[in-house]
Amino acid sequence: MTSGRECFPTENGDLHEDVKRHYRKTMSGFVIQDKVAKLLSRQNGKPVLRPIKPLALKNEVASRRMKKGEATCVTEMSLLMACWKLNDFNNAVCSKEVSAFYTCVEKAQSKAKGKQGTQD
Amino acid sequence: MAASVRHLLKPWTPSLCLVRWSRYNPYYLDPDPSKDACVPESEISPEQKELQELKTVRPIKAALSSDTSSSFNDPLISKFINMMMQDGNKILARGIMTQTLESIKRKQVEKYHKSPAAKKEEIECNPYTIFHLGLENCKPIIGLASVQKGGKSYQVPVPLTDNRRRFLAMKWMITECRDNKHRRTHMYEKLSQELLAAFANEGNVVKRKHDLHKMAEANRAYAHYRWW
């Protein structure tokens, strides 16, 4: 890179050749590997890095703090419990509330699974 | 001396080779041992067709040795037998199960013949339906989970998954029959008594389910402590 004119794009709207070459060199893994090798080597005194795990990125990102959700199906549960209290915990009489509770629970579970799927 | 040392030179291979692992790649599909009758192409919905095509292409897990294609294969009863089994003695557990079903049938048939003609149709003689319905009557609807809030742990009423409910019903049935009955009665006898009682919504297992419901009802104020 000789003059400062390399910073500006050329007439075609493309970058200067030298700039592109520089980018290609840094983008290739060789430059980074050389730097890492220099940090790990013992030739120039003690090595700068002493890694315990291999110096490689993982395939996933660390999870963010979960948002605190709220209790699902509380209304259905309270209706069911009221029915139980009236009918002495007889499930045959409260079958409507029971089925409503089950449908609510299934919906909530499928929603939670879908949300988990999109998050991961 | 040389003969004893020689086996150390051989590479170690396991004497039992694993045929079915419990951790498969999720790409593998479950085996379907049932012998389905061949349904004509027109009657299959597009989703079913897609499922069938998927089965021909995707890898499938190895079937368990307890899976059969016979019409007597009942997954609920197989699960119950596995839960009753101790030290891997599947033969004994299966024997107890068949004896239980037989004794249920005997009792019900006796009741059938002794009852007047009007009441004969109400008596259920099929031991499999009695088992299924009895277990359904033992399944809890709401469970309790321990949630810590502000340094104190509370018992919070929580909806349960189907698997958890089935497991609890079976576990209660088995522990009830093992612990709370007379020492000298056979397991199949205890199980048949308890299953017939559960079928009629009586007995200790159904009582335990009601106790759990009552606890959940008493703690309904803590229902908002849940975050899922």
TrEMBL record, chain A:
Domain of life where this protein originates: Eukaryota
Position of the signal peptide: none
Name of this protein: Coiled-coil-helix-coiled-coil-helix domain containing 1
Organism from which the protein derives: Cirrhinus molitorella
From TrEMBL, chain B:
GO biological process: translation
Alphabetic keyword roster: Mitochondrion, Ribonucleoprotein, Ribosomal protein, Transit peptide
GO cellular component: mitochondrial inner membrane; mitochondrial small ribosomal subunit
Annotated compartments: Mitochondrion
Major localization class: mitochondrion
Presence of keyword Transmembrane: no
Ranges for domain Small ribosomal subunit protein uS7: 65-220
Pfam families in alphabetical order: Ribosomal_S7
Top-level taxon of the source organism: Eukaryota
Family according to the record: Belongs to the universal ribosomal protein uS7 family.
Record's protein name: Small ribosomal subunit protein uS7m
Organism: Cirrhinus molitorella
Lineage of producing organism: Eukaryota, Metazoa, Chordata, Craniata, Vertebrata
